[in-house]
Amino acid sequence: MFAFSKFLLYFTEVARLGSFRKASETLHVAASSIDRQILRVEKELAMPLFERHPTGLRLTAAGELLLHAAKNWKKDFSRVREQLDDLRGLRRGHVRIATIDAINRHFFSSMLKKVHQDYPNISFTLTTMNNIDIQQALISGDADFGIMLNPQSSKELMVQAFAEINLGIVVPKGHPLEGRSGVRFNQCLEYPFIIPSAPLMLYGPVEALLNNNGGMVKEVAVSNNIHMIRSLIKEKIGIGILCWLDIMDEVDREELAFIPLTDPQLKSFTLSLCLAPSRQLSLAASMMLKQLEVLFSQIDAPGREE
């Protein structure tokens, strides 16, 4: 636990809980002691940090500013601790990774296992977000780096490594299409389909395929949830269109089969390892990033064949 001034510790906990009593219970410190510390600083600043109401405490504008500064100080001090540990050769640290939901599959946990084996003293936090929130987390410093799908070009975002991820037809085991090395969408129209809907990123390319084929598809179900689409395909209710990331674990377990789509107008998705160039990474984050760059280059997705 890094050093943190008594006042800032009390202040941030009261701000979080909105109550001296609740902060007292959490910190195991008398509520009167917490109150005295905050009153002393309010007197020094000549302005209140909290509005005191019968229902609880609310931060004033000055309190909001101080809370923001305290959070940044805590974050910066944590990075300094990591750098000091690195100087001592301990190679310790904590890395914060923001990822899209699609990445939370076996292959990514295998990546992290390899990194952990090389750097066992580096811990990490994984947070699942959408692309927009990942970019904001990188810019604000709430995440060291992020893994995104088809990130939008931005001067505030740098792609460190990427892998092309194909779309394909997903079928249950024993299906007539199983075993093919590639297929065009119009060769699958005789089979019932489970169609992805917005806000899934799959919705755009699938809608384009439907339009190019005059909407002639046997639609048996529509879902905006990848887990549900996988389950419906397993139950042999229909076949689906998913990207390799969504289905790779089930293919490895031989529960489902993936046939790459070879339609020439269909673009693959780009899985990207991103960071904010304006922010300096800790040594721990830099080491993990380099490891992931290498592992990204080894992602083996089924290729597209014309």
Quick overview:
The chain is 42% helix and 23% strand. It is an alpha/beta fold.
CATH topology of the largest domain: D-Maltodextrin-Binding Protein, domain 2
Q: Give the biggest beta sheet.
A: 5 strands, mixed
Helix content: 40-55%
Write the H/E string, N to C: HHHEEHEHEHEEEEHEHEHEEH
CATH architecture of the largest domain: 3-Layer(aba) Sandwich
Q: Tell me how many strands there are.
A: 12
Number of domains: 3
Compute the average pLDDT.
85
Contiguous low-pLDDT stretches (5 residues minimum) are none
Overall 3D form: elongated
Enumerate how many helices there are, as a single number. 10
Percentage of β-strand residues: 15-25%
General description of the model:
The structure is a single chain. With 306 residues, the chain is of the alpha/beta class. It folds into three domains: 2-71, Arc Repressor Mutant, subunit A (Orthogonal Bundle); 91-162 and 269-297, D-Maltodextrin-Binding Protein, domain 2; 167-260, Periplasmic binding protein-like II (D-Maltodextrin-Binding Protein, domain 2, 3-Layer(aba) Sandwich), CATH 3.40.190.10. 42% of the residues lie in helices and 23% in strands. The chain is built from ten helices and twelve strands. The strands form three sheets. It has a five-stranded mixed beta sheet, with helices on both faces. It has a five-stranded mixed beta sheet with strand order 9-8-10-7-11, covered by helices on one side. Strands 1-2 form a two-stranded antiparallel ribbon. α5 links the parallel β3 (93-99) and β4. α1 (6-17) crosses α3 (31-45), α1 (6-17) packs across α4 (61-87) and α2 crosses α3 (31-45). It starts with 5 loop residues before the first helix and ends in a 10-residue tail after the last helix. The model has no long low-confidence stretch (mean pLDDT 85).
